[in-house]
Specification:
The protein is mainly α. It is built from ten helices and three strands; from the N terminus they run αβααββααααααα. Helices cover 59% and strands 4% of the residues. The protein has a three-stranded antiparallel β-sheet with strand order 1-3-2. Strand 2 and strand 3 form a beta hairpin. The structure holds zinc ion. The site of zinc ion has 6 residues, from helix 7 and helix 9.
């Protein structure tokens, strides 16, 4: 590793380990060069790395120095999505990844949802309804990012942001005759109902159905997944019988 990379790593570990906050002055250039015993060239290259990672920025001037920044997940998620796109992740692989991560997220979210989170969901759904009514479908992925955020797990949140960006990059425009923005919004509202009811199993089931519906509509060749009846698998979480589910089709996949 180059000297600058080693120094950048060391400073990053200090920033995180000592819990420096955004806006804090970590030190002036002169102080830091003396503290770490490196050349100005090495120090400046390390600063470029820190700035690239979004963790700090060098401000010039009398009261300048290296200031701590709040890293922004968006460019990180974007870079990961570009990488995966470049790796030619197939749409089926992307769907598998979304199922793996998002079904877990929705169950976690249901387990820890509180008043604030319910309000957040309702606000987002109202905005989404207005958008769909206006004939737009610009940010129909926001619901998925919100659900991931409700887990309060930054890793899951970042992965879902990455996977939704990748979905937008890869997926051809939805075939509206098969899945309309109204359908998508209705599916989100149903998942939200289950979340608000803290019913993780039902929310998971609805998320799975939704992801499969939109992924099939996104394929050029419709390829319904033929699911062999699971044999050795444990019984899926069964939905309590008397739940008012008039619109739920009775032919539910056996995998829960
Ligand atoms: Zn959706």
């Amino acid at each position: 590793m180059k000297k600058a990379e080693i120094l950048a790593d060391q400073i990053e570990q200090t920033i995180v380990g000592q819990r420096w906050e955004p806006g804090d002055l970590f030190g002036s250039e002169v102080e830091l060069i003396a503290r770490y015993g490196v050349s100005r060239a090495v120090f400046r290259e390390a600063v470029r790395l820190l700035e690239h990672h979004g963790l700090a920025e060098m401000r010039r001037g009398l009261h300048g120095g290296l200031f701590i920044r709040q890293p922004d997940p968006q460019p990180v998620a974007k870079a990961m999505a570009v990488y995966l796109d470049f790796q030619k992740v197939e749409s089926r692989q992307l769907e598998d990844a979304r199922l793996a991560v998002e079904l877990f997220c929705v169950e976690r979210a249901a387990a820890r949802i509180g008043e604030d989170e319910v309000a957040e969901i309702r606000t987002l759904l109202a905005a989404e309804a207005a958008q769909v009514a206006a004939g737009e479908m610009r940010s129909l992925h926001d619901f998925h990012v919100l659900v991931a955020g409700l887990t309060a797990n930054p890793a899951l949140h970042l992965f879902v942001q990455t996977l939704t960006i990748l979905t937008k990059r890869q997926r051809p425009p939805l075939d509206r005759s098969r899945v309309s923005p109204d359908d998508i919004h209705a599916a989100h509202a149903r998942i939200a109902d289950a979340l608000i009811a803290r019913d993780g199993a039902l929310a998971r089931h609805r998320m799975m159905t939704h992801l499969e519906d939109v992924s099939m509509a996104g394929h050029r060749r419709p390829a319904p997944r033929a699911e062999p009846a699971p044999r050795a698998e444990p019984a899926p979480p069964s939905e309590p019988a008397p739940r008012e589910e008039p619109a739920e089709p009775t032919a539910e996949p056996a995998v829960g």
